[in-house]
Q: What sequence folds into this?
């Protein structure tokens, strides 16, 4: 039965998995084996850029899980993404050791610059990879659980919940900007050297990070697909459509909401952890509410309630952002606003919905 549910994808899900499989095989070969002067060579910069897009696609799927299937419009998922990124960044900073600018074997450079005498207690353990990965999962998960428990038990829904999630990420942004918090202030964490003892800047490491991101994205899609096609998934869909009726027939709606919100936050944190070693920096700007609003646009453009549509929207919108911010930087915000209007007025179900409508006449 489990196999049948996993195999019973919509066509878009199969396309996503096939594309990921092709990328996992083709990109390493075209980067490592094809000479740079060959037109089929994929530069390391492009590999890193595609890896970043895959992380964004995973983040979009995590939001689609709660928004598209449970009706929870979170404007704070960027916070979970950033927290996962900071956990990975703290591990990478601990690996620098005496190779930093100031040569301190224990304190990161920014702490030496700010005249810190000793490592803060919450940095202990981050010299171990397993501990850092545990924090990647635990920190966003615990925050989402506590926030969700308080909000959903109080039956906060709709726009009020969205405003609360946005306030949460804004408060975290202000906190992380403060130097005394011990997270690098406005400069954040950067100048990473290696990961698991391997040079972070080498082509092979970049390829490995890309492949891990692609595999994790595929597993994320399959996990979310498994959830939404299960009995649990049917309940959260019922909560999205008629929450009061679902509660009246005996389901503890708040438990389902807390569970799915926490899982979604964990997936967002994992996406952030994969993002940081590929871009080489994490700073408080990742907490900006605008980032979470853009995330909603990715899901809406691709098509919410489909999972693969969210991944498609994330890649397309960020590709457009990369191009426009380089060629016409002053135009991007107008394009983003136009996307919101277009999706609201003419494409309520996004690109996937439009394709389905065309296919079925």
A:
């Amino acid at each position: 039965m489990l196999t049948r549910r996993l195999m019973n994808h919509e066509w878009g899900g199969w396309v996503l998995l096939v594309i990921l499989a092709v990328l996992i095989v083709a990109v390493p070969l075209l980067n490592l084996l094809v000479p740079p002067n060959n037109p089929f060579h994929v530069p390391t910069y492009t590999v890193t850029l595609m890896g970043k897009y895959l992380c964004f696609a995973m983040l979009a799927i995590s939001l689609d899980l709660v928004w598209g299937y449970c009706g929870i419009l979170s404007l704070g998922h960027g916070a979970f993404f950033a927290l996962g990124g900071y956990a990975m960044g703290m591990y990478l900073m601990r690996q620098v050791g005496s190779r930093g600018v100031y040569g301190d074997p224990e304190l990161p450079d920014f702490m030496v610059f700010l005249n810190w005498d000793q490592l803060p207690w919450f940095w202990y353990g981050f010299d171990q990879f397993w501990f850092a990965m545990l924090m990647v999962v635990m920190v966003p998960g615990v925050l989402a659980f506590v926030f969700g428990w308080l909000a959903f038990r109080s039956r906060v829904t709709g726009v009020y919940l969205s405003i609360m999630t946005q306030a949460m990420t804004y408060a975290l942004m202000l906190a992380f900007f403060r130097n005394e918090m011990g997270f690098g202030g406005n400069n954040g964490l950067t100048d990473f050297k290696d990961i698991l003892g391997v040079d972070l800047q080498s082509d092979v490491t970049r390829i490995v990070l890309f492949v891990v991101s692609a595999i994790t994205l595929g597993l994320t899609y399959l996990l979310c697909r498994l959830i939404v096609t299960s009995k649990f998934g049917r309940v959260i869909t019922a909560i999205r459509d008629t929450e009061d009726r679902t509660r009246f027939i005996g389901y503890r709606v708040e438990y389902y909401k807390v569970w799915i919100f926490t899982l979604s936050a964990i997936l967002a944190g994992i996406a952030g952890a994969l993002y940081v070693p590929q871009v080489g920096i994490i700073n408080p700007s990742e907490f900006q509410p605008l980032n979470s609003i853009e995330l909603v646009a990715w899901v809406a453009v691709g098509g919410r309630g489909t999972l693969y549509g969210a991944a498609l929207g994330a890649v397309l919108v960020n590709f457009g952002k990369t191009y426009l911010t380089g060629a016409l930087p002053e135009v991007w915000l107008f394009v983003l606003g136009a996307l919101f209007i277009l999706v609201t007025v003419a494409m309520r179900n996004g690109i996937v919905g439009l394709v389905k409508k065309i296919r079925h006449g």
Summary: The chain has one domain: 2-359. The radius of gyration is 21 Å.
